[in-house]
Amino acid sequence: MSAPEPRHRPPPRSSLDAVLEEEELGRAIDRALLARLWRWVRPYKGRLLFTLLLAYPLWAMQVAPSWIVMTGLDREIVPGLQQRGLIAEAPPPRDTVGELEWLDALLTPPAGVPVLWWFGLLMVIGYLIAASLEYIQTLVMVSTGQAAMRSLRREVFAHIQKLHLGFFDNYPVGRLVTRATSDVEHLAEMFSAGLVLLVTDLLRMVGFAALLFWLDARLAFWAFVIVPPLSLALVIFRFKVREAFRASRVLLARLNATIQESITGMKVVQLFSREARNQRAFSTLNGAHRDAWLRSIWYDSALFSVVDVATGLITALVIAQAVGSVSVGMIFFFLRAMTLFFMPLRDLSQKYSVMQSAMASLERILQLLDTAPAIRDPAPAPAPTVQVVGVPAAALRGQKTGEMRRPSGEIEFQDVWFAYPGDDFVLRGVSFRIASGEKVAVVGATGAGKTTLINLLARFHEVTKGRILLDGVDIREMPQELLHRRIGLVLQDVFLFSGTVEDNLTLGRSDLRHESVLAAARAVALDGFIERLPEGFATEIRERGANFSTGQKQLLSFARALTHGGDVLVLDEATSAIDPETEALVQDGIYVLTQSRTSLVIAHRLSTIRDMDRIHVLHHGRVVETGDHQALLRQDGLYARLHRLQNKAPEGIVTGHA
Amino acid sequence: MTEASDFVQDRATIAEGRRRMFRLLVPYLLRNRRDYLVGVVVTIVYALFFALFPKTVQWAMEALVEGEGARAVLWSCALIAGVALLRSFFRFFSRVRIFNAAREIEFQLRDDLFAHLQRLPQSFYFTRRTGDLMSRCVNDLTTIRLMLGVGLLQLAQTPVMIVVALTMMTIMDPVLTFWMVLPLPIFILIARSLGPPMHASNLAVQVGLADMSNYLQENVTGVAVVRAYAMEAVSKRRFDALSQQLYERWMRAVRVQAGLPALAGLLPNIGVLLLFVIGGSKLIAGELGIGEFFAFFLFNAELTMPLFLIGWMFNLVQRGTASMQRVEEVLATEPTIADRKDVLDVRELRGEIEFRNLSFQYPATGAQRPAALRDVTFRVPAGSVVGVVGPVGAGKTTLASLIPRLYEVDDGMVRLDGHDVNRLPLATLRRAIAMVPQDSFLFSLSLADNIAYGLPATEMNAVRRAAARAGLDRDLAELADGFATPVGERGVKLSGGQRQRAALARALILDPKVLILDDTLSAVDAETEAAIQRELRQVFEGRTVVMVASRVSAVRAADLIVVLDEGRVVERGVHEQLIAAGGLYARLARDQEAERERAQRVVAGGRE
User: Looking at the structure, do residues A495 and A546 belong to the same domain, yes or no?
Assistant: First the structure.
């Protein structure tokens, strides 16, 4: 029996590399990438602008309480204390509120209301406005991000559906899933916690600087004097943290991969007594992982402390410079404002990493979207571009308009050559014709190119040279959907989707009635089994069909092909051994399937082969022998040899011994 | 996490679990006691400086407003800067010390956990999913590290910060302190009431994402079917619906979460309001100094964070405890497969195998399963070939796995050279036996390193010989880097047949006395199988061979054939005897023959 052919040999590339690739982080803001993201964001640009415009009113409301306290101190409290000699006399403070008439009016309590209570009330109102604005800002920001991400997700999925099958050989499933889920989530996080906040933070910092310099330029100078060296220190430490963090993450990924592999292969580890060596290797890796984190901890803690020191130093500087010239209220306001000024810097690193991983995710998503589908439908040109001799004109017209008008189901391989990219030719000039209704088998050793034939006929891959005709029309000239509707394909590995048994037969096509599903199940003698299931056709399929035997799964896939009709059957027979009783059922199923249909079967079973009209023996990508079973046996060539091997192989295994 | 509920049943169990957990943790804490001791002391000093900072600002402001002169103000400002510097230094130092210690414990625990996992019998792995064990080695250790790192740090410093700060505030003005503390319980109540809806909406988003992942995973794995049956439009509709559902769940979650920033600002804002209205009146009344007003203000701003952290801290400890119990559960599992005290001093084995009244049952996995083997008795003389056949589930693989002691059996049931397998040194046992398991698992190493897996070092000559004997040499041309090609989960995907041949080479390289082949060549094509069989005839010379096979014909020429059915030996003998006996073996052989004959009939045109 033949082993499943490797569909494609990917270049040796470990999935750990993939892990590392996922960890690669670049710039936090990449203008070219963002420009491309704009496509999905543009419909929501109004909302985005709105959230940005909210930044200043929100900032004003957050500054308001401190401003009120400053005014209260300088206008209402300190002068009284000075008059009573409780505190030292000082030059009269700058009456900033007096300079702004509307503010002055606002801060003058109505008659009979104590001034502190009035100020308190204003503070409450200010907080309520700020809270509402912040709520609205967050809500709009996140909903914008999620709405944009919804369209992006749909586009990613639609794109995945267009990619040719060869693509999936080299792109692990997990990574594709990550593109449409985690990567998109990272990007969404950029909206809720990254880009917009980064911009609004910047706006606020500018706002604080302007306000403080307007209030008291000298004091502001002293307050800001350590900001440049501080920023430098922050940048350096942040860079170091990032480097250390990245190294740690890479080692963590490696550690996880090692643990997983060790657990999965523990039986082999123990059988071959590798415990001690594995422990040493693991310990080394584990230690490297720890050490990488120790570096991260050092820089991360340093970063924390730098900001901490800065606030303390600024407090000292402001008070020291205030002697004799600055009012108490102003000092209060400066201290408060500088704390608020530093607030964004404290979690800047967090936003930075959000942006960084968003950019990395965006880049990966765009890379996927940039992968052009290698196999496309023909442009919907109405006139037939190829004239093939001997094709019923009606059939040709039928295909061009997308209808099936009595197609005959004739298949022809014309000098088909195929090589997977960067590899040797798998098929080397294969030519044969399957007349309408004929049953043809292809046999050959592993690697002969059998499965490739099917992949080319279903247009999962594109022929490198030559062409494949269905009813005289090059399959590249017809829409893939039409091609696929005409071909009933039964693959070697039966794939069951989650959902009910019936869902797995109709595959979501709502135009298929239950009667036709039932008829198909009956035809392959599966109806009895299905009806014995707890909920019959409505029984849920668990874990890719764990509740079905291999044989039953094969019968299900036969029923699936029958349900969907099509005038051509393409069957890649399963190699796995099943018990004789089910084997008989499967053979009957194949018999039913191949009736009254053009059939191309990759055969492994003797009984299947003998039932065929013709057999092509494929060897190293060429058809080397053709004929029916008896004729091929008489020929005593490759087929005869394969046949002998298949029948006698298991017997000789323990001869000549003891 | 689901596992935790299995064994945390009632309060007594929880208490017992905690006790066990602390017993487990104490040695690790003791081993790192210097770091922890220094870290905790320094972090308490940090907490004191943290509480001192507002006082230094108070003194500076007093010097300023009471007109003590520029010099006095300058000195007190220098004090502010000095305290700020020391505060940051202590914070940095204690963080690094304690976090490092936590990382060290994580490292030690992971090392020990891994070592323990390597010692556990296969029956342990039989009942666990890989994902669950992974999660214990990765996620649970992370949670424990957080508990022992940031959790412990906060536990040491936060109470000190709060107590010292509140004491200082009370000394300055008890009434104002009372008013400023008052909103705290109300705030905690609000924050708590937000917890459950937030958790629920977050969970809904996570479930939505998981649904989407599952759908994608399925759609991509079954991409050939999707294409072959032109399901693209249906798939797109389903995905769009999932995408819409996720969007709606996000929106529901955001409506709750968007309130968080405002809520975070609530407490300090209420503080400022109370300080201004109440403290302001006290200022006017002369009951409160300007300096004290500033100190209160700073306490208000700086205490918000520690107060927030208290809830988080308890949560960390709770999660850490649960994780610790899950890790402890693994570590508490006795490694039953180890050299026993009454181990025999046997260095070499000839390879005689004997089963005596062997019964075996897999550990319970929820549903009660019947015994895998019942009362199996037979003897395989050294150097002979025994075939084990029977239907699926008859216990063939189990029987084979008991010879190298992958599972624990009762004393005396399995014997090698007459010695109880339980009393043989593991090193001797495993050196003498090489097994080719059914699933032919390969590691993410080069092909050569995989073949030489059981050797102390990779010797290329031995690798080449073993590969040739296993019929792997012909595949080398297909592999880009030959023997250096990385294989396994993280390498090149080999075909099923290539994997089996590599696993066979891995066993042959050890030159074992006992060779166990568990349905070894099922995925190898006919031509290759024949070639390997020719090679194997020489390989079998001088070894005891146990061949497990589902096909009767594969064991036809064995010296002894044992037929298993539902865990019992139902027949034994050589091929001709068994055929003549007309039992299960004959029936299995007949079924295979029948299949062939049926095929003939189909060709003849007569369908049944």
Answer: yes
